Each structure stands twice: as C-alpha cells, then as structure tokens.
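We give its fold:
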Amino acid sequence: MVQQSGEQKKAVSRVMHEFKHGELKSSRGGKVKSRRQAVAIGLSEAGASNQQSPGQNRRQYARTKHKERHGETAQQEKEGRRAIDRGASRRRSTSHQRSTSRPRGSERTRAQLYKEAQRRKIPGRSRMSKSQLQRALGK
C-alpha cells in the first residue's frame, strides 16, 4: 500500500464525507451509492489510485486541489467554501486581525457593511454587492 500525504488523506476524507451525506456524484452525474465506488473516487482524487499511472495520479491530484481552492467541491458548495478553510482563520494572530479590521481612510469592507445591514435587518442584503450595501445603508 502506498503512503499518503496529509493533503491526500484530507481529499479522501472529504470525498467520503460527501458520500456519507449523499452529495458524491459519479462522472455521469448520478449519486454514488456504493462505498467501494466512493473509496475508488477518493483515491483517484487524492492521486493515490493503483489503477492509474503516476502521471494520471499527479494530474488528478492537481485537478482536485484546483477544485478545493475554488470552492467547487460538493461539500464546499453545500456548506459554504469557508467550511473547509476554518483552520486558516483560527491560525491568524489577533494582532493581525486588529491591524486589518479597518481599511485605510473611512472606507469599510463589504463584510463590515454586511454586518451593519444584518444589524438593521435590511432585506436582500446577502445578494448585495459592496456598493449596493453602501447605498442601502445610506453611506
């Protein structure tokens, strides 16, 4: 058996999570119902399949990383992209958060505007752009 890296284990884990929650789809678009098929897909996406050449494994793993970076996995689409990246936000130091909490000048970020809109219960705020939020808040 081939030793997997931590990133490959995460990829297999994500695929199995999708399978468990009925989100994993085959290449034809149908839901995967077989655990064996889910394991095969997981190993393929992790680039650890013994059914593919080393070159195919590398390409497949690169494709998987691209999907994860761009929030295109079923888990990220269902739970939101940040569901996977929770650890990254926790690792930031508090000093970094303080220094970047307010941009230069009086301009606020979209997240800050959204929080204010949430507090004021402005309808349709989740679909608004930064400029739309500024108009709705009267800024």
Observations:
- The radius of gyration is 20 Å.
- The mean pLDDT is 80.
- The first helix runs from residue 6 to 20.
